[in-house]
Amino acid sequence: MRRLRNVKIVATLGPSSSDYETIRALFEAGADVFRLNMSHGAHEDIAGRHTIIRQIEEELGRPIAILADLQGPKLRVGAFKNGAEELEIGKPFRLDLDPAEGDGTRVCLPHKEIFEALSPGSSLLVNDGKIRLKVEDCGADFADCIVTVGGTISDRKGVNVPDVVLPLAALSDKDRKDLEFVCELGVDWLALSFVQRPSDVEEARTLAKGRAAILSKIEKPAAVTAFDEILAVSDGIMVARGDLGVELPVQNVPPIQKRLVRKSRAVAKPVIVATQMLESMIESPMPTRAEVSDVAAAIYEGADAVMLSAESAAGDYPVEAVQTMNAVAIEVESDPTYRDVIDASRGGKRETTADAIVVAAREIAETTDIKVICCYTESGTTARLVSRERPRVPIIAMTAQRGPARRLCLSWGAHCVMAGSLQRFKQAVVNAARAAREDGFATEADQLVVIAGVPFSVAGSTNILRIAPCEERLIFATDPG
């Protein structure tokens, strides 16, 4: 199941993609990571999808990553006596803690933390920003507002507060229960919603206890402001453009996306670009040209992965959406301009022996007739460093650990192969050559670069680079050890 592109595809599972046949078809169409959205579906449903993915993984012999996306706190208004009301520009409207049903002048907002954080001049956005309110006066249990953008407000619509850091933890009680459930189930990544500060990530990491890697969703202005600190304590990043585009002016989102992708790449942490990438394919078998350009832009930026949400979870054409994304990726990565952009955007500090070795591996591969870079990795770090280099040749990541193999399915270019434990470097070279031949990356006439650390099974010990033939007979003939 060798992919013909380097960027990875994340496909969300849901009502349209919950059976064995569809999930397998999604993987065969190009999905590398499956997202389980904890906002929808009971634990029983989530467990059923998890079981199917692991069954397909076993049948095909390829590691597959599973990402559980935690819901995060949901801020919503209460109910209205008439179900809905029309708010007019310039008219007053109150939000308060009174649980009585709302009308055209007020409604309950059952989140005292919001009132604690508000001040005159603060903005409140309702129903994905379709309604906008400006706070004129506020207290511990109310906010008197003026309607600046009117429209229909109805029961339990979501509320965004873009210009304040809310005194809310990223994990609700539901999230803590969901986190424990999916960690025990055996997911590989946890996507954390509503991140505002590094401590939000650290709390999730403490609860996960090393059972899953932590991916921070950047969907709030506060997270953009504190991004460097959040990135430092995260294992990966998702540029979640949905809420980000609600809470910030839409024209701010593209440059923010570019900055976050580049910063994540620089520290060798996988970054996903998400939300509305092929939105029209929820109902149409063909995407719009603008959507294709959006996916292409994320690939040109060097994102590790692009994501499908409702397109694959609830749409009419889930497999076609993955096929489309796969086709766009192959076409973009075959464009000579793509390599120019990727090479020009390469960055990040190179301070360690491992950094120097992976840079050397890339340069050797790109200046000689090397067909593939093969790296042995215990924790996944070496493979992520090779991925950061965005080499022009394929990357085979070999590990004896199933967890890192699955997590690396999210890293650009990493073709993950399970390998047995090693005692001698010669065996590492033999295994690498065999994997390169069997998976179609090289022939017996070709050469490859092998990176490893000795002693084996010690994380962070990358210290050897070897250029080797792909033919086992030659390996033994040229290696006296």
Instruction: Please identify the structural class as seen in this structure.
Output: alpha/beta
Radius of gyration: 24 Å
Characterize the biggest β-sheet.
8 strands, parallel, barrel
CATH class of the largest domain: Alpha Beta
Number of helices: 18
Taken as a percent bin, the fraction of beta residues is: 15-25%
Helix share, percent: 25-40%
Shape: elongated
Mean of pLDDT: 94
Largest sheet, order of strands side by side? 1-2-3-12-13-14-15-16
What is the CATH third-level topology name of the largest domain? TIM Barrel
What is the fourth-level CATH superfamily of the largest domain? Phosphoenolpyruvate-binding domains
**CATH arch. level architecture of the largest domain:** Alpha-Beta Barrel
Tell me the total number of β-strands: 21
Annotate the secondary structure layout.
Elements: E1 8-13, H1 20-29, E2 33-37, H2 43-60, E3 65-69, E4 84-87, E5 92-96, E6 106-108, H3 112-117, E7 123-126, E8 131-139, E9 142-149, E10 151-154, E11 159-160, H4 173-185, E12 189-192, H5 198-208, E13 213-218, H6 221-225, H7 227-233, E14 236-240, H8 241-247, H9 253-266, E15 271-274, H10 289-300, E16 305-308, H11 310-313, H12 318-333, H13 336-344, H14 353-367, E17 370-376, H15 381-388, E18 395-399, H16 402-407, E19 414-418, H17 425-438, E20 447-453, E21 462-469, H18 472-478
Parallel strand pairs: 1-2, 1-16, 2-3, 3-12, 5-6, 12-13, 13-14, 14-15, 15-16, 17-18, 17-20, 18-19
Antiparallel strand pairs: 4-10, 5-9, 7-8, 7-11, 8-9, 20-21
